Amino acid sequence: MTDQKPILLVEDNELNRDMLIRRLNRAGIEVIPAEDGQQALDKMVSEQPSLVLMDMNLPVLDGWTACRRAREDDRIKHIPIIALTAHAMEADRLNALEAGCDDYATKPVDFPGLLIKIGKLT
Amino acid sequence: MSLRRRLTLALVAILSLFAVNVGTHFWGSFARSESMVAYRNSVTASQLSAEVEQLLENQRQQTLVLATLRDTTEDQLEDEELEQAISDIESIRSAIGRLGKLSIGIESQFETLANSSNSLLDGWLEFYQNYNDRDYRSDVDDPLPYLEASERLAELEQRQAFIAVQRASIIDRTIALTDRITVIGFIASIFLTATLGFFLVRYTNRSLKRLKTGTQRIGSGDLNFRIDNIDDKGELGDLANAFNDMSDKLRNAIYDVRRARDVADEANAAKSIFLANVSHELRTPLNAIIGYSEMLHDELDDTREVDRAQFQRDLDKVTLSGRQLLSLINDILDLSKIETGKMSIHCETFRPGELITQVCESLAPLLRDRNNTLQLPDFSDLPALYNDQTKFRQIFTNLMSNASKFTENGYISLSGGPVAGREGWYEFAVHDTGIGMDEEQQKKVFDAFVQADSSTSANYGGTGLGLAISREYCDLMGGSISVDSAPGEGSTFTIVLPSDPELAHADA
User: Fold this and answer.
1) Which among B276, B281, B458 has CB closest to A13?
2) Which of A97, B149, B158, B351 is spaced 20 to 30 A from A34 at the CA atom?
C-alpha cells in the first residue's frame, strides 16, 4: 500500500484526527487531513486521493451532503468513501450508504477492521 | 308512535270489530224472535177471527131457526137446551175476549168489534132467557147487529193479516241486515288485520334494517355513522338513540385511545432519539480513549525508542477524554433525574454575588485560553437569596463556560439586579461578543443534545446538555431562562429567579 496515492481523512475533532493520522501513518498509509465537508470536496478534486475516510458530523458542510455532492461530480465520483461516525444505529448505516458511501465504520474505530476495509477499496 | 302503542291500537281495533259482529248477531236474534212472536200472534189472531166468524154464523142460524119455531109453534125449550145455548153464547164472548188479547197495536179496532159483538150477543142472550115467556117479543131476526159485528170482525181479520205480512217482511229485512253486517264486519276484520300486520311488519323491518346497517357500519370501523332517520319515538327510536349514544362513546373512547397511543409513540420516539444521541455522545470520547490507548500500546511494542514527552501528552488526552465522558454521564443522569421528577431542590440562604465571583475565578483558565476579557460588576449590593445554591452555581458555570467557548478575543460581561415591578425577583444576564445564533438555533438551544450547529460539539466541546439542564434547574427553582442573540453579534442569556421558590408558587 505504500506506493499508493494518499488517502483523505475528513475529521473535525482534533484529538481524533491526530490520533487516526498517526495510526494510519504507522500502518504505512499517507494521509491528507481535512476538517470540514467543503475542504474535503476541494481536496478530493485537487489531490485525487485513493480513498476518503469521512466523518459525518462536520461543520460547514456535513458528511452526507459532501458524499452526495462527490457522487455528482465527474472528477471525483470514482473515489471510494468510507463513512466514519459515532452514529451506531442501523438507520445511520443505511443513511450513509444511501448518501453514496461505499462502506461504513462506527466510532470507536476498530482499527484492524478499518485497515481491512481500506485495503478492499484501494 | 311506539311499537307497544301500535300493537295495542291494532288489537283494540280488531276487538272492536269483533264486538260489533257479536253485538249485531245478538241484536239480530233478539229482533227476529220478537218479530216472530208478533207474527205468530197475528197468525193465531187471524185463525181465531175465522173461528169466531164461524161460531157467530152458526149461532145466528140456530137463533133464527128457533125464533121461527117459537113464532109458529107452541113448543117450549127445555132448561137444558137453554143453558146450552147460553153457554155457547158465553164461549163466543170469551173467544172474542181472547181475540182482544192478541190484538196488540190495534186495540181501537178491537174495541169497536167488542162493542158491536156485545150488543149482538146481549140480544141473543136476552132472546134465550125469555124464550119460554110467550109475552116476550124478540127482535133477533133483525140482521143489522149481526152484519155490523161480522163486518167489524172482517175488518179486524184483515188488519191482523196485514200486520202478519208486515211482521214477516220485518223479519226478512232484519235477517238480511244482520247477515250483511256480519259479512261486512268479517271482511273489515280481515282487511284491518292484514293491513295492520303489513304496516307493522314493514315498519318494524325498516327500522330493524337500519339498526342492522348501523351495526354493520360501526362494526366495519365507520364510527361516524349515525342512525338518524328512524321516525319513532318509542322502543325502536330509543334503541336507535341508545345505539347512537354507544357510537359516540365508542368513537370518543377510540379517539382517546388513539391519542394516548400517539402520545406514547411520541414519548417512545423521543426516548429512542435520546438513546441514539447518548450512544453517539458516549462514542466520541470513547473513540479517543480507545484509539490513543491502542496507539500507545502499539508504540510501546515498537523497537524504536519512545518519545516520553509525546507519550505523556497522549496520556493526558486519554485522561481528558475520560473526564469528558464522566461529565457527560453525570449530565445524562441529572437530566434523567429531572425528567423522571426525582430531582429535588435544597434551599439555603446564599449571596449570589459571591457565588458568581467564585464561578468566574474557576473558569479563569478557559477565559485566558481564548483571550477573552471578563467584565464583572460589583454584586455586593445584591441581597441574599433563599434558593438552591448548588443549582445556581451549576447554571452559572454552564452559561459562563458556554460564553467562553463560543467567544474568542472578545468580551464577556455579567449583570444582576432586582426585576422592576416584581418584588423579590432577580435577573442575571451573561452577555458575550461571540459567534451568536440565528432564530432557528435559538429555538432549539435549550433542547437536550442540541448545540447550535451539529459540529460545535467537535469544535467547542461540551455535551450539548448544559443548557437543557440549566433550563430544567431554572424551572425547579421557580424561575426561567431566555436567550437573545444574532449571528456574529454575540448572545445574551438571561435568567429570572425568585428570592424564594415559594414566591413562584404564590405568583402562579
Assistant:
1) B458
2) A97
